[in-house]
Amino acid sequence: VALVHDFCRPFPDSLLCTRYLVIGTMMAVSRAMKPGQAFARSVQRQAVVGSSRAFGTRSADPAAPRKGVVPKEVSTAEEAIAAHLKPGDMVFIQGIAATPNPLVDAMVDLAKKKEMKGIRTIHMHLEGKSPVPDEEAAKYITPLSLFTGGNLRAAVNNNWAEYCPIFLHEIASLFKKQIHTPDIALVQVSPPDEHGYVSLGTSVDCTRAALQHCKSSIAMINKHMPRTIGDGLVHISYFDTIWKHDKAMYTVDPVEPSAIEKKIGGYIAELIPDGATLQMGIGNIPNAVLAQLGNHKHLGIHTEMFSDGMLPLVDSGVIDNSRKITHTGRTVTSFLLGSQNLYNYVDNNPGVEVLECEYTNAPSVIAKCPQMHAINSCIEVDLTGQAASDSIGTRIFSGFGGQVDFLRGAAMSDGGKPIL
After folding, report:
1. 3-state secondary structure (DSSP) of residue 102
2. What contacts 17, CB < 8 A, 6 or more positions away?
3. pLDDT of res. 6
């Protein structure tokens, strides 16, 4: 790891090669070992991976109640953070529309006030202010971004934050294999039901895996968080600290596609047959495609992201998920981002399953969907057909996300098409 770090430091554009450098280093070490040593190392690694709950304090499954355990309820975000945060901690933050911004702000303020050095955050795309909103915060906090949004691009490219290139379906393995073990998880959930279950709401993605393998957790309970059905149901006793705070959800209203985007959307719509299963990425192009599928029949949805563009097709019956082999009759997604209308639609709706991205984005699972059509956007394409979706030259723009997961899965699907 030290060898790879030293090699990559002078070359920002070599970060994408880190995975292969690590593999090459491991192969070189393996060849230098005697057969018995290699076998011993293999057994040792299997033992570590198999004991993924060694550092945790909770039950193996977030849906399992902890008998006799009642989380501590606090009255402020500052009180919640102060009870857990220490110098050198790694903090997982739930992302996208579910970003618990008041808890993040309290963490930043406390780190500055107490001069807590060495704090690292790990997360996907965050909304609102970043964990390093200014140079002062960067003295104490270093984000590790698994997918970079607009609020962290400058920090990543100015070396205030780190970026880890990783496929979405592999993020859970960072926690399960203890490559990273969060000391604290910050999440936002719906109010508990009569049985004590809250919902991770709009972002299940890698959050459930992080919760399962962190050392302690803080939940912000928000009545505006939709209660989604699927892997996001967690028993209230699973959290160590809870804070009730009602705050409007982060929303993104649909934007009317441009004339060029509508033209591209029309070309793509012609490639989609009746009965196809769809995945739509982020951007105006996927929405432009959806707007031109009104005459199709029996479409299904298996995606990482569910947004407003799909709702008119659901209302008109074009999307009915009837031809899907798995999760027949139900829309499958990993996270949601859109308008309040979208959040109202998914609230307590068993027709939408919000599942872990380890499952939704597994190419082997995607390939089981009949006529899987994955539709995504990229930033640049060269004359040889090479495409870049995560960076512009040496500057990180976003991340791998789930694009490659779905392009691979669609290519393996019977009658499927990966479209970029």
Report:
1. helix
2. 8
3. 44
User: In the structure encoding, which two tokens stand for residue 82, read together?
Assistant: 């102060």
Listed residue (351, 398, 353, 356) closest to 376, CA to CA: 398
Active-site residue, selected from the candidate residues 78, 127, 261, 304: 304
C-alpha span between 18 and 11 (Å, rounded): 11
Cβ neighbors of 299 (< 8 A, separation 6 or more) are: 272, 274, 275, 276, 277, 278, 293, 313, 318, 319, 320, 321
Question: Which residue, among 129, 135, 193, 124, has the nearest Cα to 164 in the 3D structure?
Answer: 124
Joined together, the tokens standing for residue 61 give 């499954």
Neighbours of 333 (CB within 10 A): 27
73 is catalytic: no
Strand partners, 233: 199
DSSP 8-state secondary structure symbol assigned to residue 148: -
User: Tens digit of pLDDT for each residue in 337-346?
Assistant: 999 999 999 9
Q: Is 358 exposed, middle or buried (0-12, 13-18, 19+ CB in 10 A)?
A: buried
Assign 36 a pLDDT band (cuts: 50, 70, 90): very low
Q: Is 297 left (phi over 0), alpha (psi -120 to 50) or beta?
A: beta
Global pTM value: 0.84
Q: What are phi and psi of 170, to 5 degrees?
A: -100, -5
